[in-house]
Amino acid sequence: MQWQADVGPVPQHIGALLLFGDDAPAARQLAALLVPRFTEVAVTARRPVRPPFGAGSWYWLDDDTDRGPHLAVRSLPPDATPASGPLGTSLAAATDEVMRRFDGAHSPWRCTVLARQDGSAAGLVVTLHHVLADGVSALTVLTALADAGPANGERGDGRPRSPAAGTPRPRYRELVTDAWHMRADDRRHSGAHEV
């Protein structure tokens, strides 16, 4: 319902901007480090799918196992005025990222590393659609990215985990069968409450 209701000029996105100091790593290096961390966050593989006519309501599909395309590096322009400074430039770029809509073909999230002129990371913008995460689960995603524990994507012994396989897309017959079972259950439960 949240996905379908997002029709206004301001998208229903949750955004976070993390800023880095002068000792930040290179922006491209940071983006590469984040890919396995996002792979550990299961919700970042989900996307809402609308079934064919007669096959019930929207459902979640886990088929977006490659997190790489969701991460990008964006170069910041030189500070336009002394008044705006680096923070103002980062905030303007972050606002652009959070306001950009998702296409629906992939899981509705993105992570953009903001790069200074020298190539170092100035900030990190994480954008999630509200259908994917509310405030609390969005914090879980950010914790997985910033946690100082073993790099996500490793098992703790330094060896990488094998990527999780996505769930297969349900067949039309399965969707229709599930939809009719749900309708029957709704009728049974609503009839039980009638007096």
Which key terms come to mind for this protein?
two-stranded antiparallel sheet; Chloramphenicol Acetyltransferase; 33% helix; alpha+beta; 18% strand; single chain
Can you put this structure into words, describing what you see?
With 195 residues, the protein is α+β, with helices and mostly antiparallel strands. It has one domain: Chloramphenicol Acetyltransferase (2-Layer Sandwich), CATH 3.30.559. 33% of the residues lie in helices and 18% in strands. It contains 5 helices and 6 strands. Strands 1-6-5-4 form a 4-stranded mixed β-sheet, with helices on both faces. Strands 2-3 form a two-stranded antiparallel sheet. It starts with a helix and ends with a helix. About 8% of the residues have low confidence.
How many β strands by DSSP?
Answer: 6
Task: Give the end-to-end Cα distance, rounded to a whole number of Å.
Answer: 31 Å
**Mean pLDDT, as a whole number?**
78
CATH topology: Chloramphenicol Acetyltransferase
Low-confidence stretches: 151-165
How large is the share of residues in beta strands?
15-25%
Backbone CA Rg:
21 Å
Shape summary: elongated
> In total, how many domains does the architecture comprise?
1
Strand order of the largest sheet: 1-6-5-4
Count the DSSP helices.
5
Which architecture per CATH? 2-Layer Sandwich
- CATH domain class: Alpha Beta
* Major sheet characteristics: 4 strands, mixed
Helix/strand order, N-terminal first: HEHEEEHEEHH
Helix proportion range = 25-40%
* Class computed from helices, strands and strand pairing: alpha+beta
